[in-house]
C-alpha cells in the first residue's frame, strides 16, 4: 500500500438471509460487507488537496472488492447488488469519505464486469462503534426496486478520532420477499445504468 494508507484492520461480514417472516425462497440471499480501518492522513487539519488519497486507495478498493466476491462464492456473475460507504473519525471531515467514491466504486465495477448502475453511497463522521446504513442497489439498473436495500455495518473500536472506516457491500440478490412491483431483474436492458 501507499505511504498514505496504513491499515489497522479489515473486517468481512456475511449475512445469509433465509426468510423475513415469509416462505423460504429457493436459495438464501447473501449480503457481504468488507470494512477497512485506516489511519486518516489528513486528521486534525484542513488539507486543500486531498485527491492523492484517492489514488492511494485504489489497491485497497480492489482487495476489498475481491474479498466480497470470494465471500459470496467466488463468481462475480452471481453478484447482483452493491453499495459503499465510509465513517470518518471525529478529527477528520466528511470530505475525507468522498475520497472513497472512485477507488471503492470503480473497484467493484471493474471486477464485476457488467456493472453499469451508480454505486449507492453513505458517509458520515462518527466515533468508535458508529453504525452506518450502506444503501444498496442493483449493479446494472438503478430502477430495479427489488434491490433497494441497506446493510448496517460498523466496528466496535473504529473509527478512532484519527481513522477512517471504508466499506464495500455486495449482494447476490434483492430483498428476500420483494413484491412491490417495479422493473424486474429479467427486464433489465443494461443500456444506461437506469433500466
Automatic annotation (TrEMBL):
Organism: Oceanibaculum pacificum
Protein name per the record: Peptide synthetase
Superkingdom of origin organism: Bacteria
Pfam families the UniProt entry points to: AA_synth (PF06684)
Amino acid at each position: 500500500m501507499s505511504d498514505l494508507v496504513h491499515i489497522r484492520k479489515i473486517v468481512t461480514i456475511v449475512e445469509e438471509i433465509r426468510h423475513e417472516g415469509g416462505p423460504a425462497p429457493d436459495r438464501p440471499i447473501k449480503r457481504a460487507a468488507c470494512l477497512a480501518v485506516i489511519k486518516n492522513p489528513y486528521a486534525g487539519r484542513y488539507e486543500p488537496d486531498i485527491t492523492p488519497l484517492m489514488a492511494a486507495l485504489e489497491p485497497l478498493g480492489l482487495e476489498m472488492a475481491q474479498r466480497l466476491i470470494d465471500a459470496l462464492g467466488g463468481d462475480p456473475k452471481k453478484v447482483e447488488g452493491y453499495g459503499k460507504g465510509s465513517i470518518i473519525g471525529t478529527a477528520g471531515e466528511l470530505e475525507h469519505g468522498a475520497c472513497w467514491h472512485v477507488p471503492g466504486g470503480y473497484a467493484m465495477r471493474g471486477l464485476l464486469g457488467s456493472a453499469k448502475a451508480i454505486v449507492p453511497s453513505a458517509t458520515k463522521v462518527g466515533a468508535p462503534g458508529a453504525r452506518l446504513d450502506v444503501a444498496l442497489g442493483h449493479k446494472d439498473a438503478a430502477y430495479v426496486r427489488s434491490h433497494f436495500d441497506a446493510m448496517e455495518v460498523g466496528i466496535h473500536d473504529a473509527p478512532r478520532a484519527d481513522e477512517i472506516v471504508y466499506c464495500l457491500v455486495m449482494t447476490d440478490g434483492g430483498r428476500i420477499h420483494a413484491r412491490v412491483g417495479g422493473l424486474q431483474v429479467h427486464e433489465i436492458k443494461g443500456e444506461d445504468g437506469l433500466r
